Amino acid sequence: MYPAPIEQYSRPSTLEELYSLLDSNEEDILVLAGGQSAMQAVKSRMLRPAHIIDLQALSELKFVTSEKGLLTVGAMTRYVDIVSSDSIPLELIALKDAASRVGDRQVRNRGTIGGSLCWNYSAACTPVTVLALDGAMNLISPDGSTRQVAADDFFLGPLETARNEFEILLSVDFKLRGSKSGSAYKKWGLVTDALPVIGIAACLHFDNTDCCDYARITLTGLSGAQRCLEAEASLLSTTANTEEIAEAMMIVCSKIPTYTDSMATADYRYQLIKTIGLEVIEIAKKRAFGLG
Amino acid sequence: MAKVAIDINGRLFQEEVPERMLLVDFIRERAHLTGTHIGCTYEGVCGACTVHLDGEAVKSCMLLAAQADEHKITTVEGLAPDGELTPLQEAFKSEHGLQCGFCTAGILMNMTDFLKRYPNPSEQEIKKGLIGNLCRCTGYVHIINAVRKVVQENQLRKT
Fold first, then answer.
1. Are A101 and A82 in contact (CB under 8 A)?
2. What is the distance between the alpha carbons of residues A236 and A231, in angstroms, rounded to a whole number?
3. Which of chain B's residues have a Cβ under 8 Å away from the Cβ of A107?
4. What letter would DSSP give residue B30?
5. Do B18 and A5 touch (CB under 8 A)?
6. pLDDT, tens only, B102-114
7. Buried b (16+ CB within 10 A) or exposed e, B128-154
8. pTM for this one?
9. How many Å apart are CA A105 and CA A101, to the nearest integer?
């Protein structure tokens, strides 16, 4: 576990400086955010970058703002900053559920939301939560052109995203849905706060008659962050009571294949999906009604 | 090679280092401060190499030395520069918070930062704070007692 030789290390302090560094035909560039996953890959030599571009000095990408029904989180915002932020509204509190359980406190002092989203590890807390909260990624290219990619289109599979090689994730937008909205995230791993064997996030909204009119349920641990579309649909127009949630999680289990490995058997994974799913959706519902 | 200027425990180290050199090796081999330990072949799992980067606990095997350029590092040697132990170090001594001592430097650095941020933690919060540090003598009970002792002493001082 030691990096292969690296030819160059750069630490741009402005976006302009970063773009000029990216604007070359250089190969084997690694753009490093907090480095709590990517450095592991560099040390194990899964990645052998010739040039590491470290984003740590880009203070303009470290912020959390909430205004006009929109929460925006800068890509270089660390987990510890998300956990301690006063700007994250209650309905998006799943972000704090996830950020407060990543790795350990040394990792949370360094790791960033943007780094985790762009790395998109097969079992990670941030992508699955941002997918449930319908986050939108604000990307910029070295030529200055920008685009926004919805979470549904951003996460393509483990370690794969829609981000082009030289695009930089600037921030993530989350739309607020107003009253009677709630969210939650929970995971189970082999040790406390480990990578999830199964992790589930949920975001619900209830209408004036207290029926669910918006549901996103997402799952990680099997093959990256994925939506549970049929289960989401089954909760619509219900009050999302315990039986209805249990039924929704049964639907998830009937649609998604699991597997046995050294961490858990396939059956145990189904049990985790049912148990954590029920817990997470009930917490999200309680929060939507101001009870959680 | 990368030129770095890293402040370690108040002393500036200006060196040329290979880009791939990890911060923990810079601390041990260039600054010759061997209190920071490598417990897990740089895998980022044991926490023995925990130091403070600008006052916050980080694992020094997870960073390149070049990333610490122009930053302030504190190692376990910097906790008691004049030889007078901090209350946490005293508590580790009196509560037998170490057996072989290999993990101790990292735990002291992590818990020093932890107690700064959470001056009055519950036992559960202390346990959660310690997740990033492994102790192979399994002395966790004594380690938790040592941290609790500092919390209790601080509370007594306030009342």
1. no
2. 9
3. 44, 59, 62, 132
4. I
5. yes
6. 999 999 999 999 9
7. bbbbbbbbeeebbebbbbbbbbbbeee
8. 0.96
9. 9
In chain A, which residues have their Cβ closer than 8 Å to the Cβ of B110?
105-106
Would strands B56-59 and A168-175 be described as parallel, antiparallel, or unpaired? unpaired
Which is it for strands A160-161 and A212-220: parallel, antiparallel or unpaired? unpaired
Can you give the CATH number for the domain in which A254 is found?
Answer: 3.30.390.50
User: What CA–CA distance (Å, rounded) separates A141 from A164?
Assistant: 8
The verdict on A125 and A207 lying in the same domain is no
- Statement to judge: residues B100 and B63 lie in one domain: no
Interface contact A190, partner B, CB < 8 A:
no
Task: Look at residue A48 in the predicted model and tell me its pLDDT.
Answer: 97
In this model, does residue A81 exceed pLDDT 80?
A: yes
Which domain range does residue B15 map to? Answer: 2-78
DSSP state of B27: I
Does residue A234 carry a pLDDT above 90?
yes
- Domain of residue A44, residue span: 8-54
Report the C-alpha gap between B104 and B35 in whole angstroms. Answer: 9
The residue that leads in pLDDT, A1 or A200, is A200
Q: Which residue has the tokens 């040790």?
A: A191
Confidence of residue B143 (pLDDT cuts 50, 70, 90): very high
What is the reported pLDDT for A192?
87
Q: Which of B58, B78, B98 is a domain's end point?
A: B78
Complex ipTM: 0.96
User: Which of A52, A103, A106 lies at the smallest CB-CB distance from B57?
Assistant: A106
Token pair of A283 as six digits? 């917490």
pLDDT confidence of residue B122: 97
Please give the structure tokens belonging to residue B104: 């101790």
- A residues 49-88 near B, CB within 8 Å? 52, 54, 56, 80
Q: Are B65 and B105 contained in the same domain? A: no
Check which CATH number belongs to the domain holding A48 and give it.
Answer: 3.30.43
Q: What stretch of H or E contains B144?
A: helix B140-158
Report the pLDDT averaged over residues B62-85: 96
Number of structural domains found in chain B: 2
pLDDT tier for residue A165 given thresholds of 50, 70 and 90? confident
**pLDDT digits over A31-72, tens only?**
999 999 999 999 999 999 999 999 999 999 999 999 999 999
